[in-house]
Write a structure and sequence with these properties.
Elements (H helix, E strand, L loop, with lengths): L4 H15 L3 E2 L6 E2 L11 H5 L20 H6 L8 H17 L1 H7 L11 H13 L5 H8 L3
Antiparallel strand pairs: 1-2
Helix pairs in contact: 4-5, 6-7
Amino acid sequence: DELLPWQRVEAIRNALYNSALKKVKVAKYNKDFVNYFGNGILQANSALSIPVTSGLSKTPEDQVPLFPILHTLFKAVPDQQQQAKMDMFNTEIAQMIYNYPELNLLIEDDINEYAAIDKLKWQKFKEAVISHPSTSVTLRQYLKGIQ
């Protein structure tokens, strides 16, 4: 039987997750993984030896559980057609806040609720995101158009 596209994805995910190395074999760290992202260290060759199975459940579609930054900060209200683009922008900004502490510090994200951050800080944050080298061209253009 031919697998459906989602079943192929689930078979690959199953092989990668079940073959991932869950122990670190470095003398300094000879212990189980406790703090890591994902399911361990990728073992591609081992993953290839796991048989394809069609009886797996479909993983629910991902949802980005983050605060709607653009709507809160700049009162940007997308229509239904723009929602996917806004979700991508919100995800990019959330990743930047996480990866670049200097951006986080501008709005004191760890200290203040978004609603408590004043307009001047949001403006400085917006300018910093626009000028940041990791900002996508699309997000940069979008932010330049927001007053």
